Amino acid sequence: MDTRMFKVPAATTPGEELDRFMAGLKRRNPGEAEFHQAVEEVAKDIVPFIHNNPVYKDAYILERMTEPDRTIMFRVCWEDDQGRVRVNRGYRVQMNNAIGPYKGGLRFHPSVTLGVLKFLAFEQTFKNSLTGLQIGSGKGGSDFNPKGKSDREVMRFCYSFMTELERHIGEDTDVPAGDIGVGAREIAYLFGQHKRMSNSFTGVLTGKGLSFGGSLIRMEATGYGAVYLMNNMLEHNGESIEGKTALVSGAGNVAQYATEKLIELGAKPVTLSDSGGFIHDPDGITRERLEWVKELKNVRRGRISEYADEFGCEYHEGLRPWGIKCDLAFPCATQNEIDMEDARSLISNGCLAVAEGANMPSTNEAVDLFNESKLIFAPGKAANAGGVAVSALEMSQNASRLAWEEAHLDDQLKGIMKEIHEQCVQYGKNEDGSINYTRGANIAGFVKVADAMLAYGII
Ligand code: NDP
Ligand code: 2IT
């Protein structure tokens, strides 16, 4: 790339520098709204920070961090059960490997575009840095929709997807994992095809089944980690999780295990959702009902509306849960599921704290509103880092061909989330003593990667 594209005239204020930086980014990445949004959320904190730390500014670190090391796009052909030829698009964005091999999930969802994956890969840079482990950042996936497909169709798609991806990944190069639409079933098909093609059994994917190199706690890690971080934030404010009413959105991997940990810690989760709407169970989702949801979503692959039929509670079609009165909120479905209006209702209903289990579930306007209010807000890059952290622990176990015990892994996860909380406090303290976790996570995540990039020279 011609670095002159990044040259900006000397600016006087961080505000002007931010405007110029964002104008350049939008010009170079037209039409990628989610990527613009994710970068802007970070740049709002980083541009003023590097204004005061010119060593990063002079080396164009933020400009380099927003340009992926490489993006790979490829055709994925497969045959459906009717014998028809189907064509999807596959991607892998290898964002930044300054502090470790590229690491991040694969998303299979019809809404996947290059811009969506660039936003996710960019978030991953900061998140992975915050874990304190040796993992760089990446993200990939496809516009393939697993919904309504048979197991064999999903298998054929995964084989075809991996047939191209295999040459680009490796345990020391790039280690994909799951995300929306990619769970235990898909990872197993992908790993099986990689093993066959490469004639090697390595930790090239995480989130694997326990019988072929998977780690205990990985399945639970994102949801549990979000609740651990919430616990850290509440304790920091002299509060606790016990007895709190919680809204959870989503009904997939992250939502299920956030709900499980909330129940275990004595909170009362009252909602779950999917793309059809949300259920409201005012007495609290019990362990038994949660087990039913796991079977519904992971085995039968049904809709959350069936919960309302089964247990006789309300189902709100086409709506999101944020209007229900609560103490805590855990958005665990997808990006931009909390807008200004949702943020306003959470605040005016007295919600104490929000921890983002999903990636970028709040719009930038909603994030600003949360941070200007008394509500305690943890961005996804801090709150959902437990998943990728345990993925890194899976990589360590694979490299040493050992399997660690559940209690040991859970302790490590708790320790990592506590450490993330401390980094946010260190870099995000406001003058009145409150914590801006968004700024804390952005700056702490940035510094580690930026220092490595500076050390390498101009790469
Ligand atoms: P799953 O596929 O297991 O579940 C996703 C859930 O979100 C489903 O209930 C799904 O409903 C809902 N959802 C997905 N897309 C939309 C949409 N466009 N509108 C409304 N609802 C939607 O994914 P995960 O639980 O793994 O991921 C959830 C979020 O957490 C994502 O943002 C992901 O990036 C993030 N995350 C995941 C990690 C992991 O380890 N899995 C780690 C860190 C973050 P439906 O079935 O109707 O589509
Ligand atoms: O967004 C994420 O952090 C994930 N989907 C998990 C990535 C991973 O490599 O475990």
Structure characterization notes:
Helix content is 49%, strand content 14%. The N and C termini lie close together (12 Å). It is α/β, with parallel strands linked by helices. The longest helix has 23 residues, at 406-428. Among the domains are: 70-206, Leucine Dehydrogenase, chain A, domain 1 (Rossmann fold), CATH 3.40.50.10860; 221-378, 3-Layer(aba) Sandwich (Rossmann fold). The protein is globular and about 65 Å long. The chain contains 17 helices and 13 strands.
CATH-level-2 architecture of the domain at 221-378: 3-Layer(aba) Sandwich
Describe the sheet with the most strands.
5 strands, mixed
List of distinct ligands in this structure: NADPH dihydro-nicotinamide-adenine-dinucleotide phosphate, (2Z)-2-iminopentanedioic acid
Query: What form results from the Cα inertia axes?
Result: globular
Sequence of strands across the biggest β-sheet = 1-2-4-3-5
Which band does the percent of strand residues land in?
5-15%
What's the CATH class label of the domain at 221-378? Alpha Beta
- Kindly, what is the distance between the CA atoms of the first and last residues, rounded to a whole number of angstroms? 12 Å
Unreliable parts = none
Number of helices: 17
Report the CATH topology name of the domain at 221-378.
Rossmann fold
Total number of strands: 13
Structural class: alpha/beta
Oligomer: single chain
Helix coverage percent: 40-55%
CATH superfamily of the domain at 221-378, by name, is NAD(P)-binding Rossmann-like Domain
Order of helices and strands: HHHHEEEHEHEHHEHEEEHHEEHEHEHHHH
